[in-house]
Design a protein that fits this description.
The protein has 591 residues and is an alpha/beta fold. The chain contains 26 helices and 10 strands. The protein is 51% helix and 8% strand. Strands 7-6-5-8-9-10 form a 6-stranded parallel beta sheet, with helices on both faces. Strands 3-2-1-4 form a 4-stranded parallel beta sheet.
């Protein structure tokens, strides 16, 4: 077939290509190459189709051959740069785009492509500078505006990024990547609803992108839209079955819905996908929590030990010369038990100290300041010291929260001999608690703001206001510290007194709780202390919360005197406080 016929075929193929019939266009290009393997136009155009079909490596091979045969072929160099970038070879893409710009320096579109590759390499300052140049030449070039926004996002200038994404989308409203990246910028700015909207549009425009579904799911998860998050994570996984992070976060979303069996299965699948030479401590930690919530304590405590391999774990691993205790003979030895994580964790797991002492060991506890006076009074404890103070001589040591695993604790064998804490001598309750008639009820609305699940467990103090009108009840705030809005935000009421300012440590709080008839609080140290003292307390629990508060029941094996008031669905505090108000009104009537 002569050159004229080949030219006609190329023209026909290009027209089909332009109108979107890539399969037929590709067939024509392949036919031409079967007769003429060195036809640079067919090589270049077939390469473009291969890239569009999701095969950038094949595209690189075809287009690269075209540039070798025709070193001055400008369009092929531009297409080769695009294919190299799509294949994850950004360094080579930068070099090729630079070659193309030497051929034709007055092409702002190619400058924009170069900026995109530079962004991929993290060279955001360079990318921003050449985007500005491209926009000076062609102010309405949406691709350059989007790449400038990407550079701003990479530089942490999220507001600038959003501004430029808006301009880019005005010029190119069908740019799925711009919608997606603007969602990322908005998410970083804490504008979750807006981010979600942008991710949804990105997914609509690019429904086969697993990454876009994944980020949409993460935004939904951050907004506590767990069902929506599950759906989007599952879509991401259907597109890319081995998407490790999607499996992990899907497990977390399922966990938040109380679907523990499904969450555990997802975490196990993620562990299968994780690189064996890169142990994922955070994933093991997630699995541990799900197992414990599901009542599988044996494997749960074992997985819980992975916390020490997580660089982001709240408590640093102790680097001590003495060996860790593994449950062996400690007769006549001194063992150092050291607390970890939050105050509530220490108050809960210090119940194991008497069990260690029962093995005829001398027990010393190192704990956070504020707990020392209380812990000195525990049966079998020889001494308690503040964290950071010089350590006394000891033979072995153990983190307090490793003890359930060492003792082989199951749901049925939780050590729940209550009380295991007592009010120390010298700690006296505020006399105002005894001054007056009716039920004396303590309350607390917030835990530590540094707790990773704090937004799910803490509430605004105003949530308690409807309780204050119940006849025959006096209320005493036990809230200490700066955990969100304070007591002063509550309306003045004669039956509501703030004790928080006078509570110097947990020994003082223990004295107050011991004098009260009831404590009502969110899942924080106050309810742990009440439970450890054997005092009645009502726990305001999130829908899917800690393994301490088992699903499907209103009590806990860890604290016999505690009663749970749980959300009916995630975030539903209204039903919780309504139930508490009814129960408290009934209790006040009986008193």
């Amino acid at each position: 077939m002569n050159a004229a016929n080949t030219g006609e075929e190329l023209k026909k193929g290009f027209e089909l290509h332009r109108t979107g019939d890539l399969a037929e266009a590709g067939r024509i290009y392949k036919t031409i190459l079967e007769r003429d393997p060195d036809n640079v136009d067919a090589l270049n155009l077939l390469g473009v189709i291969m890239q569009a079909a999701g095969n950038p490596q094949a595209a690189v091979g075809l287009i690269q051959r075209a540039t070798e045969l025709a070193p001055d072929y400008f369009a092929a160099h531009v297409n080769l740069g695009n294919a190299l970038q799509a294949a994850g070879r950004a360094e080579e893409a930068v070099e090729i785009f630079q070659v193309a710009l030497k051929m034709n320096p007055l092409m702002p579109e190619v400058v924009s492509n170069l900026a995109s590759a530079l962004n991929d390499l993290g060279r955001h300052v360079e990318a921003a500078a050449i985007c500005e140049d491209a926009l000076n030449t062609k102010p309405d070039l949406a691709a350059a505006r989007a790449n400038l926004a990407n550079a701003m996002l990479g530089l942490g200038k999220h507001e600038k990024a959003v501004e430029n994404y808006r301009l880019a989308l005005e010029g190119d409203p069908g740019n799925a990547n711009a919608w997606f990246s603007m969602g990322n910028a908005l998410f970083e700015l804490g504008q979750g609803e807006e981010a979600l909207n942008h991710y949804q549009e990105a997914v609509r425009l690019s429904p086969e992108s697993a990454e876009k579904h994944y980020n949409l799911a993460n935004a939904a998860l951050a907004l506590d839209r767990h069902e929506d998050a599950v759906e989007s994570f599952e879509r991401a996984i259907r597109i890319t079955p081995e998407y490790l992070d999607a499996h992990v976060n899907l497990g977390s979303a399922l966990q938040s819905l109380g679907r523990m069996e499904d969450a555990i299965a997802r975490f196990r699948r993620a562990l299968e996908l994780a690189p064996p030479d890169q142990p994922n401590a955070d994933l093991h930690w997630n699995l541990a929590l799900a197992l414990l919530q599901n009542g599988d304590y044996e494997e749960g405590w074992r997985e819980y030990e992975w916390r020490w391999n997580n660089p982001d774990f709240t408590t640093p691993r102790k680097d001590l010369e003495q060996p860790l205790w593994d449950g062996g003979d400690v007769h006549g030895k001194t063992i150092l038990l050291h607390t970890e994580q939050g105050f509530g964790d220490a108050l809960q797991f210090v119940r194991y100290a008497p069990l260690v002492a029962a093995r005829e060991a001398r027990v010393v506890i190192e704990c956070r300041a504020g707990l020392t006076r209380l812990f000195k009074e525990i049966e079998g404890v020889a001494d308690a010291i503040d964290a950071g103070d010089p350590l006394p001589p000891f033979d072995v040591h153990a983190p307090l929260m490793s003890l359930p695993g060492i003792f082989g604790t199951t749901v049925e064998t939780v050590p729940a001999d209550i009380p295991y804490l007592a009010v120390p001598a010298g700690a006296a309750a505020d006399p105002r608690i005894a001054e007056g008639d009716g039920l004396a009820v303590g309350f607390a609305w917030a835990g530590s703001p540094t707790h990773r699940e704090d937004r799910k467990r803490s509430v605004e103090p105003g949530r308690f206001e409807p309780l204050f009108s119940i006849p025959g009840v006096r209320f005493f705030s036990l809230q200490v510290g700066g955990a969100g809005p304070g007591f002063e935000t509550l309306p003045a009421a004669g039956n509501v007194i703030d004790l928080g300012a006078g509570l110097g440590d947990f020994a003082d709080t223990a004295a107050a709780i011991a004098a009260l008839d009831l404590v009502i609080a969110v899942d924080t140290a106050v309810v742990h202390l009440a439970g450890a003292l054997g005092r009645p307390a009502w726990v305001l629990a999130a829908f899917a919360s800690s393994y301490l508060w088992p699903a499907g029941r209103d009590d806990t094996p860890w604290y016999p005197t505690l009663k749970l008031f749980r959300q009916r669905r995630a975030g539903d505090w209204d039903s919780v406080f309504e139930a508490v108000r009814e129960a408290l009104a009934a209790l006040a009537t009986e008193a």
